[in-house]
């Protein structure tokens, strides 16, 4: 658990078909949630060891066709825009002739921590990277690089396909000594992995203060405060010295908005590792990458998700 006091939060969850996850996530962002969690039950089962979701909980989406996704966002207890949220979701339903379900729960820091301990376990990504929750023990094998993580109330355990794509790109392409920008860092897992793999200077940004707090504590737990600087802020406002690598585990719409900034801030031959892209949006994202002088060099896919490694000309 991050912090010393217990805080309660409103957890709004929207269940919908995966095709519309970007629209729902954008609604949450627009309404003030700095971090949105997208849970695809079919994109991370092999890594969390958790059982499949109970199909009896879903009344209108086709479980057998593996079509549904759950989008979650957290707000303070005094947040009072529920009617506006319902109206925005109703507009999505009307526009696309679909059904969505909104569920409101109250959670606190301790409930969140307990949930992670029950379902999140040590696992390996790629050939060397090992992601270990801080409450488990693990004896590294020769050549393995271990990242210690406690997500707190921020997105990012590494189990979801979108995060694993970026972790795999980092393992494959980092040479050592790179300057890295992590756009929307969440728990900081990508920054931690980059540092462990040899990146020298990492700036991690997130709009969500909970994510910033979690990322800072994870950097301390890994002894990486000297390599990772975590700030609360919007990556679209950044005007740093040129980066060797930009990490962007975002929705397709957020990634497209980021591309002009990414192209400006990447060195020639610098890398953009992007994920969180649903497969039906990939052609549009690829076109935008090319528009800003970013050549696709590798694409990873799993379930409905796409990750891309691109390089600036």
Helix/strand layout:
Elements lengths: L7 E10 L3 H10 L5 E4 L5 H4 L19 E9 L5 H15 L4 E8 H11 L3 E3 L3 E5 L11 E5 L11 H13 L5 E5 L5 H8 L4 E6 L2 H13 L6 E5 L10 E7 L2 H14 E13 L3 H10 L2 E9 L2 E8 L1
Parallel strand pairs: 6-7, 8-9, 8-11, 9-10, 11-12
Antiparallel strand pairs: 1-3, 1-4, 2-3, 5-6, 12-14, 13-14
Helix pairs in contact: 1-3, 8-9
Describe this structure in words.
With about 325 residues, this protein is of the alpha/beta class. The protein has two domains: about 10-115, Alpha-Beta Plaits (2-Layer Sandwich), CATH 3.30.70; about 155-310, 3-Layer(aba) Sandwich (Rossmann fold), CATH 3.40.50. It has nine helices and 14 strands. It has helices at about 20-30, 45-50, 80-95, 110-120, 160-175, 190-195, 210-220, 250-265, 280-290, and strands at about 10-15, 35-40, 70-75, 100-110, 125, 130-135, 145-150, 180-185, 200-205, 230, 245-250, 265-280, 295-300, 305-310. The strands form three sheets. The chain has a seven-stranded mixed beta sheet, sandwiched between helices. A four-stranded antiparallel beta sheet has the order 2-3-1-4. The chain has a three-stranded mixed beta sheet with strand order 5-6-7. Strand 9 (about 200-205), helix 7 and strand 10 form a beta-alpha-beta unit. The longest helix has 15 residues, at about 80-95. The chain is globular, with a radius of gyration of 19 Å. The N and C termini lie far apart (about 45 Å).
